[in-house]
Amino acid sequence: MYIRESLKMNKKKWLTVVMGTVLVIGACSPEEADEVSEGGSSEGENGEQELSDEEAFPVTVEDARGEEITIEEQPDNVISLLPSNTELIYGLDAWDQLQAVTSNDDYPEKASELPSVGDMVIDVEAVIANEPDLVLGGAINDPEALNQIESAGIQVVVIEDTNTFEDFYRVVSTVGEVLGKNDEAGELIASFEEEIERIEKISADIPEEDRVSVWVEVGADPDLFTTGSGTFVNEMLDVIGADNVAGDQEGWVQFSEEDAVTLNPDVIILTYGAYVEDARGDVLNRSAWQSIPAVEHDRVYELEDSNIVTRQGPRLIEGVETLAKFIYPDHY
């Protein structure tokens, strides 16, 4: 779920906009009017020249490898080697530029309709055969495979793997720049920030005595895994106004059941329910967990899609909203 903004104008404002547009075009020479009406370059609010998507090129970016890459023209045939890149392309309204993905790409649903160029293992021959003008990879991709693609004369931009919203905004800007979607990137970041600010205002009004502690379980086979600091989940809990019981740990953390029980969370969130039958029931029936507040008060929740809290992409905001409603249903 992407953030949906509605723009409401009263009739007077609407007429003002229309009349202003008429006056601007009327003040142009015929040639200038044609240029404006045909979607060419125009001046922004500060009198600066605004460029069309195509005119924004060439662009030079520094990718996750620290390499500076210059893209001469807006790419029309892009291959994404990671689901997170694919979601971001979709969120930037650049789907018509996407040519192929991997078999791991599950969002949006129509990603399955595109040709596949491998999974976690890149099918280099398939990538080259598709003759893309740009490949968006990630730090998780095999460097040797990326080198082979580049050796075939195909440009590769490696997108960094981030764990904070601020770093995610930087990724949005980079991908927007290489795709010629700067405006869309700016709008996505602004809407994301606006929703975060809205949620933070709500959490600021939650009384200290009502704050809850949360255990986010991302795996349970056989030892338990959760998320500590330096993860999207931890930042989401901060925004919501909840306390991560593993927040003093770093990254993805493994716990024994004995150690996990001592954390005594008020709420338990399960991210793997889509892959395990009755994951919630399993937690509620753990004999050692019966005195934990989350189990005593039946406050164990399953996420239908863990990617909304772990995969860097526009749906992270949906993850924040979903966790907020689970944890503080009376406030959100």
Automatic annotation (TrEMBL):
Residues 77-331 form the Fe/B12 periplasmic-binding domain. Residues 32-56 are annotated as: Disordered. It comes from the Bacteria. CDD domains: YvrC. InterPro entries: ABC_Transporter_SBP (IPR050902), ABC_transptr_periplasmic_BD (IPR002491). Residues 45-56 have a biased composition (Acidic residues). GO terms for biological process: cellular response to iron ion. Belongs to the bacterial solute-binding protein 8 family. This is ABC transporter substrate-binding protein. It comes from Alteribacter keqinensis.
